[in-house]
Amino acid sequence: MALLEVDRMTHYFGGLRAVHNYNLQIEPGQIRGLIGPNGAGKTTIFNLITGIHRPTEGTVRLEGRNVVGLQPYQIASRGIGRTFQNLLLWRHLTVLEHIMMARYSRLTYGLIGAFFGTAKRHREEEESEQKAHQLLELFNIGHLAHQNVLNLPYGDQRRVEMARALSMEPKILFLDEPTAGMNPEELIQMMDIIRQVHQTFGVAIFLIEHRLKLVMELCEAIQTLVFGEVIAEGSPDEIQNNPEVIDAYLGKEAIE
Question: What is d(CA 107, CA 173) in angstroms, rounded to the nearest whole number?
Answer without folding.
Answer: 20
